[in-house]
Specification:
With 470 residues, the chain is of the alpha/beta class. The chain is 32% helix and 25% strand. The structure holds flavin-adenine dinucleotide.
Length: 470
Amino acid sequence: ASGSDDNDVVVIGGGPGGYVAAIKAAQLGLKTTCIEKRGTLGGTCLNVGCIPSKALLHSSHMYHEAKTTFAKHGVKFDNVHVDLAEMMGQKDKAVSTLTKGIESLFKKNKVTYVKGHGKFLSPSELSVDTIDGGTTVVKGKNIIISTGSDVKGLPGITIDEKRIVSSTGALALTEIPKKLIVIGAGYIGLEMGSVWARLGSEVTVVEFAPDIVPSMDGEIRKQFQRSLEKQKMKFMLKTKVVAVDTSTDVVKLTLEPSAGGDQSVLEADVVLVSAGRSPFTSGLGLENIGVETDKIGRIPVDSRFSTNVKGVYAIGDVIPGPMLAHKAEEDGIACVEFIAGKEGHVDYDKVPGVVYTHPEVASVGKTEEQVKELGIAYTVGKFPMLGNSRAKSIDDAEGLVKIIAEKETDKVLGVHIMCSNAGELIHEASLALTYEASSEDIARTCHAHPTLSEAVKEAAMATYDKPIHI
Ligand code: FAD
């Protein structure tokens, strides 16, 4: 551990918010230390979030394709089966390669890395209980809190990470459950549900609200739910869990309609509690320096990421805003730019959201519901993937592109894509929103043929005029 006194910036937490902030600070010539208690860098995202989930989504997709579609393409082999331990090994390798990669980036950029738990002694001083059992003090002129978030439990349900699991346990099951119940139909629940459904689990998703992924455009959401249902995922919406019984071999959940009514019992081998995440500030000593938190434990910040205490900043999942890795990274860069006396910038209206199921669902900007609510006159252009030659040529033509534009000016307000690779396709829409492009601007941009991206161009044509291929 460094214990150095003269840091310009100390970052607490080595997740996507913290490690990116630390690297950027060092690149801007600021002497920087990052404190991380986990023992590996990358935070939730690399260790137990984005990366391992995408690794398993990919592996399970390959298996599912091998079982269900390869033969149609003339690729035939007998006895396709899953070796779960090997699949998990592949995921673990992806995680360790990437977390070690960040350690190398720290070395390359001369960021000091202190492995331990940091706690405020004063606004410019932290005591760190190091992983090797020691204690050290780290001082800095500016301190950035990037302590992220943790799994939110549900009252009356104890997570044991074996039969009642959080996303962390669901990423490391040692057997494929025959029956899996997912509590919560947000993107994490649907992604993990998809993984296990593809590997053979009977998956039921129980959701208190009337809809899955509430932030999604309603029309896209309906098609998305139908698609997941075709993949044999079952949904029990407007349903709440009132009791959990783990006293026998199977877990028994007592369910009730959200609005009250007759109870029913649903059995499962494994239950995934996926009811959201809470900001994490426990043991950080915020009370020692008077940093305020709001009702749900988030740290409010001003437009320059400053907390109510001078010299103390906060970014990422621990502050209000979408709890997403790329948003945390944007926060980190902008926060450090402000500290370095430059201008930083994050536009929270243009943070893309992606659900990495198959098909993927990606969106940026406003949903049709939001535009209606704002009273903006608008036009909608849609293009189904069935009209896209690349999608047809690879027999993967589920989904659509939907573009919402302001009626008067044709300015693009929101883009919603459901198709394989939607998470890659969304970024031309992000760029369009950033540059305040019109749907005609997208339509008149030459798109390579044959690509899935042509569906974005055709949806743009459909917004202000007519598409060609449908
Ligand atoms: P975190 O990544 O949570 O990092 C905070 C770090 O701070 C942790 O490593 C913690 O150990 C450390 N820490 C906390 N307190 C202290 C302390 N006092 N001292 C030292 N260290 C401390 N987002 C996406 O954008 N795309 C996805 O596909 C995606 N998939 C996800 C899948 C799952 C299963 C989960 C759980 C999350 C997923 N997320 C995804 C969300 C994403 O992981 C978070 O938004 C992101 O990690 C937030 O980054 P952060 O830096 O704010 O916090």
